Amino acid sequence: MTASNGPPWSSYGRQPSTHVGAQLGCHDTGVLPYCARSKKKNLKNIFQSQASAVLIACALFLASVILPSSAYAATYWWMGTNGTSTNNQNNWSTSDLTTCTSGTGSGTPGAGDTIIFDADCDNGATINTALSADTVVIESGYTGTITQSQSVTVGIGGWTQSDGTLAGGTDNITISGDFTLSGGTFTSTSGNLSVAGNFDHSGGTFTHSSGTVVLNGTDQTISGSTTFYNLTKTVTTSRTLTFVGGTTQTVSNTLTLQGASGQLLNLRRSGSGQWNVNPTLRSISYVDVKDSNNTNATAIYAPSSTDSGNNTNWTFDSTPTPTQTPTQTP
């Protein structure tokens, strides 16, 4: 047979294909493996492009579901008429206005937001529906009164007060971050004030209202001298509660400090000198104490606890009271 000098497909008696394979860049040269490889390569590219688009769409969806509300957090300044509700959107502004006027009407604060009371608007506020925010800041120069008549929940941004007055009610106040009082007056709730961060009272007035301060975080520090009604920290995993040397914590009702067997609550000092405590009633066990001075006339008895030194007016019993087994009569 004489070899043809025509195009490579002429020996097969076929024309170049115009089917979908050709549209994908796969031209029929009469050599099947070449066409197959071209199809495979182009189909792979199309698949990868579509897969990338799907992954991007999924990522955007998951981000909208999983990202914390703080990712969309806003800052709200109080602008309300004196004594009006914190639940009225017209009492808030999302920009820092220089005078006390009607708010921007752009909503009320939520769990991921920051609330600011500042000197630009000294009008008081009433918390008459449950209030949630990530951060509450009462700035120096604010002279109004914030009246609590419903629960308050503050996130890890914490409560920072430099001026003004909180008039607590009976509902709980829960703070997942630090409680910082450097000025003004904080009249606490008669319910529970729960603080998961540090309790820092460097100035201003803290009034306990016969309520309970619950320290429910991990390792925590109490700074400054404060008079509590009930002060409580209870742990099941060993933690440390630190007091600043030279300060005094007065507890006019019950001081509760509880660890667990093999998981002691460590009571420690920062700075120099002893940390002072003056509790009227006590419920204390499974603690490890160092550098403490009990100024109350009655010694603190701490069963199942450890004396780590430099403690005054404490009595320790490191051995739990054994369970008595009845003697059997032969």
Q: From the alpha carbons, calculate the radius of gyration and give it in angstroms.
A: 35 Å
Q: What is the averaged pLDDT score?
A: 85
Helix-and-strand structural type: mainly beta
Shape: globular
- Helicity range: 10-25%
**Quick one: how many beta strands?**
27
Query: What is the CA-CA span between the terminal residues?
Result: 121 Å
The unreliable regions are 6-25, 28-32, 63-71, 321-327
Main beta-sheet annotation: 19 strands, mixed
Question: What oligomeric state best describes the polypeptide chains here?
Answer: single chain
What series of H and E elements makes up the topology?
HHEEEEEEEEEEEEEEEEEEEEEEEEEEE
Characterise the protein shown here.
The structure is a single chain. The protein is mainly beta and 330 residues long. The protein is 12% helix and 38% strand. The chain has 2 helices and 27 strands. The N and C termini lie far apart (121 Å).
Summarize, please.
Helices cover 12% and strands 38% of the residues. With 330 residues, it is mostly beta strands.
Question: Could you list some keywords that capture this structure?
Answer:
single chain, 330 residues, mainly beta, 19-stranded mixed beta sheet, 6-stranded parallel beta sheet, 2 helices, 27 strands, 12% helix, globular
Write the layout of secondary structure elements.
Blueprint: H1 20-23, H2 32-66, E1 75-78, E2 84-85, E3 92-93, E4 114-117, E5 125-127, E6 131-138, E7 145-148, E8 152-161, E9 165-167, E10 173-175, E11 179-181, E12 185-187, E13 192-195, E14 199-201, E15 205-207, E16 212-215, E17 220-223, E18 226-234, E19 239-244, E20 248-258, E21 265-270, E22 275-285, E23 287-289, E24 292-294, E25 300-303, E26 306-307, E27 314-317
Parallel strand pairs: 1-4, 2-5, 4-6, 5-7, 6-8, 7-9, 8-10, 8-11, 9-12, 10-13, 11-14, 12-15, 13-16, 14-17, 16-18, 17-19, 18-20, 19-21, 20-22, 21-23, 22-24, 23-26, 25-27
Antiparallel strand pairs: 1-3
